[in-house]
Structure formats: structure tokens, C-alpha cells
Amino acid sequence: MRPIGAVTRGTTGYNRLRRSDRWLTAVHGGLLRSADRPLVVDLGYGSAPTTTVELFDRLRAVCPAVEVVGVEIDPERVAAAKPAERPGLTFVHGGFELPVARPPTLIRAFNVLRQYGEEEAWRALYGLRDRLAPGGVLVEGTCDELGRRCSWLTVDADGPQTITFAARLADLDRPSELAERLPKVLIHRNVPGEPIHELLTAFDHAWAVCAPFRSHGVRARWIATAELLAGTRPVAVRPPLGGRRRWRLGEITFAWSAVGG
After folding, report:
1. What does R_g of the chain's alpha carbons equal in angstroms?
2. pTM for the complete prediction?
């Protein structure tokens, strides 16, 4: 079967996806441990297997039974990744059809859908969602070249559930700068009248109000901003998730209803 999809630029690098990996192990480690023969697919790992190997090592630390398969549409990239294989970690040629032996418990697809149109991205999201094992989760997102600004969606059998923003806070002037790394299904909707624009505007306002906290460090300001958002309309009906433990890491998660209408 011919792989479904198109070859991406393949940009990758060490620790580029460390922020999402940290979140994955904390938030979905239990899902993997509860699964029978948990399988994780890393779709579109790029020109080198670096981030897939890192994902494997980090997931094995919280779920020793997990297997990881890196899927790439470029056969030359797959051939180059083969020397990095080890028990529980393999690399295969394929695309959105996911040529794996069984439905995965978790699919990670980072920096894959940015080159597609919004409708194509939605089709890909739901196509991947339908290939998950029961109870499985798709994590789809994007980040900058150094992994310092990221956002990602979680999608399950019922559709999109959450959006998470993560950043190196020392490099962030205001939260709305993360808009340049929104997932493909949202990036063109960051305009007045759309929920994602409303959320980012409220985020910037709360960040400005919490400016006095910067004397205690940028992390304290970020936490105070998240706490303010939790009690300020129009976001009060859809407060940020995760709590201080996640916020202090430069993360913040919102229910999909905060951005998807």
C-alpha cells in the first residue's frame, strides 16, 4: 500500500520535543501502564530518529513495557534510522495509514500537519484517531526549531479534548506569541471573533495584570496569570487545567471548548 501523506521538511534536533515528552509521561503514563502491550507511534519523526529515541527512553522510564514505532514517509529516512533500533523500538516506512501490527495506545504527530490545509489537517486528525486502540489518545502539535515554544492537541474517540501551551518563559514577552505555533486546525482562526483569539487576548491581559509578579521571577508571573485566568470571565467557565504543578513548568492546558467553540 502506498503511504498516505507528503514528505515534510524533516527538521529535528536533540530535545526539541522535551516539553511535550515531559507532559506525556506525566499525564498519559498511567494510560500506557494500564494498557495490554502498549504501543506508541511517533508519526513523521523527520530526517533523523533523535526525537523518537528520546521519546522511547522517556516512556520506558514510566512504562517499561511500552513499544515505540517511528513512522516516516521518506524511505531514506527510515533506512538511516534503522541503526538506532533496539528491543521495543523500531522504524518503518509509512504515513497516515500507520503500518503497525496493532492499534496504538498513543500516537504522537508533531510538526507534521503544518504543510497541509485546514480541511486536510482535520481529515488526518480524525483518520489517525480512528486507528487508535480503545481508550487511546492522539497528541498532535507543533513547536519551534529549538522546542522553546510549543502547543499540542489531545484527541480521543470523542474528538479534540484539550490544548496545551508550553514555553521557555524567559524568552516569552507575552503569551499570544505562542500563536505562531498553534496547531494547523487553529492557526488560521486566530482572528477577532474566534474563540482562540478570545482566549489569547484574555491570556495577554492576565499576563499584563500580573506584571508585578515578575519581581519574583517569570515562573511566578506565569502561575499568577494561570490563577487569574481561572477566576476571570470569559474564561472562568473553562478554566485552565493541570494546576500549579504543571504551570510551574511553563505549561498551561485548556479544555478544547476554550478554543474550538
Report:
1. 18
2. 0.94
CA atoms of 157 and 151, how far apart (whole Å): 21
State pLDDT tens for residues 6-61.
888 778 889 999 999 999 999 999 999 999 999 999 999 999 999 999 999 999 99
With H, G, I as helix, E, B as strand and everything else as coil, classify residue 219: helix
Asked if the peptide bond before residue 234 counts as cis, ω within 30 degrees of 0, the response is yes
Could you say which DSSP state residue 48 is in? S
Helix (H, G, I), strand (E, B) or coil at 36: coil
pLDDT digits (tens, 9 = 90+) for 128-186: 999 999 999 999 999 999 999 999 999 999 999 999 999 999 999 999 999 999 999 99
- Scan for cell 496545551, then name that residue: 164
User: Which three cell numbers, joined as nine digits, stand for 4?
Assistant: 498516505
Q: C-alpha angle 138/142/148, rounded to 5°?
A: 125
The SS3 call for residue 232 is coil
CB atoms within 10 A of CB 60: 16
CA atoms within 13 A on the CB side of 140: 23
Give strand pairing partners of 149. Answer: 167
CA distances from 37 to 66, 131, 159, 238 (A): 7, 16, 24, 35
Domains of the chain with CATH codes: 18-166 (3.40.50.150), 169-260 (no CATH)
Strand partners, 156: 159
Residue 216 has pLDDT above 90, yes or no: yes
